[in-house]
């Protein structure tokens, strides 16, 4: 059941031919977070945590 939901999310974002094991959906979500980070006020309490999370995620794709 969980796999079906995951595939439905991937298919919705990238089309029915997208591979479930592809890194594209994860990279799309990381890009979305990066956009939110860039728009975020540095005084926001979440700013430092999001910056750290993005650095860790970027390392896994480096």
Describe the structure in your own words.
This protein has 62 residues and is mainly alpha-helical. 71% of the residues lie in helices and 0% in strands. It contains three helices and no strands. The longest helix has 16 residues. The radius of gyration is 14 Å and the shape is elongated. The termini are far apart. The model has no long low-confidence stretch (mean pLDDT 79).
Major β-sheet, in short? none
Number of helices: 3
Taken in chain order, the helices and strands follow as: HHH
Helix content: over 70%
Write the topology of this structure.
Blueprint: H1 2-14, H2 24-39, H3 47-61
In short:
By secondary structure, the protein is an all-alpha fold. 71% of the residues lie in helices and 0% in strands.
Keywords:
elongated, 62 residues, mainly alpha
